[in-house]
Design the sequence.
């Protein structure tokens, strides 16, 4: 029986996550499996990987062949590197303690790189959020300026209309005062007794 370490698809359309399983290579993708080794969720950034390290190492050492995607996952988690180091210990290239030290050093470096990636992502998110807020503030400022211009134009129209009404009223007052001034001498002449 050829054993494969592969992914089983779960989740809904457009939002898939996967179980990492050891299964017979003849079994269907989402069918019967021998053992579940972990899960892989590519929807998060960085991808969330939950893996039973010891069992994955066991299956690799007993001859199970990983698919390409699972190989990259196992490599990222250090399972393939640990298998390589164990092979060196079996051949006598170095001791088990030296292998453990190398693996721990690799694990620290990998953890530091992951933390750096997460902090860069959070800084990028903050920068993007700040940029969006600045752009939104500029849009609000432009809208406020446009509204202020419209209000100023309406106010100017009202002032102009009031000034025109005032001019008309003063013109009417002037014409009425002129008309009354013309009527007064005529009335005065009419009211004076003729001698």
Sequence:
């Amino acid at each position: 029986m050829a054993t494969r370490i592969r992914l089983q698809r779960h989740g809904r359309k457009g939002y898939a996550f996967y179980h990492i399983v050891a299964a017979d290579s003849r079994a269907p993708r989402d069918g019967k499996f021998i053992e579940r080794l972990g899960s892989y969720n590519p929807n998060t950034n960085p991808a969330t990987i939950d893996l039973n390290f010891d069992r994955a190492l066991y299956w690799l050492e007993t001859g199970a062949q990983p698919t390409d995607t699972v190989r990259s996952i196992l490599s990222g988690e250090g399972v393939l590197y640990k298998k390589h180091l164990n092979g060196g210990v079996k051949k006598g290239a170095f001791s088990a303690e030296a292998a453990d030290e190398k693996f721990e050093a690799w694990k620290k470096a990998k953890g530091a790189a992951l933390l750096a990636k997460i902090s860069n992502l959070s800084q990028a998110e903050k920068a993007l959020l700040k940029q969006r807020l600045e752009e939104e503030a500029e849009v609000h400022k432009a809208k406020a300026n446009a509204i202020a211009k419209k209000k100023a134009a309406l106010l100017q129209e009202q002032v102009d209309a009031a000034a025109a009404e005032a001019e008309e009223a003063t013109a009417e007052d002037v014409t009425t005062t002129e008309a009354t001034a013309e009527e007064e001498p005529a009335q005065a002449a009419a009211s004076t007794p003729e001698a």
